[in-house]
Amino acid sequence: MLDFETTVRARHSVRQFLPTPMTNAQIREVAEDARRSPSSTNTQPWSVHIVSGETLARLKKRIMEKFEQGELCPDFAYDQSKFDGIYEPRWREFYKEMFAANGVTRDDSEGRKKITRRNAEFYDAPHAAFLFMPDVGDGNVNAASDMGMYSQTFLLSLTARGFGGIPMLFLAMFADVVREELGISPDFKLLHGIAFGYPDKDAPINQFRSKRASVDETVTFYE
Ligand SMILES: Cc1cc2nc3c(=O)[nH]c(=O)nc-3n(C[C@H](O)[C@H](O)[C@H](O)COP(=O)(O)O)c2cc1C
């Protein structure tokens, strides 16, 4: 098991997985770690659905079909253009560098589409966790923050144990499909998914690391 500092620094979004599945016991250990996450008034709003094997193959197929047809059905709206000001250069740079790491330039629309499509292939991950939460109206923002805590613990646990994962908003675009395929009540809303498994350490895309703003840019200290 990796120590804390190594784990935090080693974690990154894995965009190519090996086909080798994790064992049920290994997945359970990660879920054991993740359930220790903090949540507002200890509500633990996470309802997590972990999908592997034939069920994942079926789900992937249906998501790919919807993706190809351009039929999105998210529970929560997402508008990238709202992230303007200091945030816009960050996401623009991320896209540019991530596409470049895949050998695709800005004007290569076919290449970009192929990379976006990798999301629908779950980056070949043998497992995916779907993170649902109850629809609690005005409290949704608090619940979503709790869900983020859960996701990060899940991801760090994977890394510390020699596995890897990637949080995926892309998967939330197909909330209805996931609910239908897994028989989940419409009372639960899909925030995001996490594809996970063994990282393919030799894959060029897994050498890519996105940048971070400095502590001085993001933290204000008072005395
Ligand atoms: C909630 C959330 C959703 C994300 N959705 C996607 C996604 O759908 N596809 C993808 O390739 N990366 C996705 N990412 C990964 C981010 O691009 C990545 O976390 C960010 O660039 C920082 O890089 P790192 O995770 O490698 O440190 C998502 C990250 C988060 C936290």
UniProtKB/TrEMBL annotation:
SUPFAM superfamilies the UniProt entry points to: FMN-dependent nitroreductase-like (SSF55469)
Keyword DNA repair: no
InterPro entries: Nitroreductase, Nitroreductase-like
Family annotation (Pfam families): Nitroreductase
Cofactor names: FMN
Domain Nitroreductase: 8-198
Domain of life: Bacteria
UniProt keyword Flavoprotein, yes or no: yes
Keywords, comma-separated and alphabetical: Flavoprotein, FMN, Oxidoreductase
Family: Belongs to the nitroreductase family.
Protein name as it appears in the record: Nitroreductase
Organism of this sequence: Basfia succiniciproducens
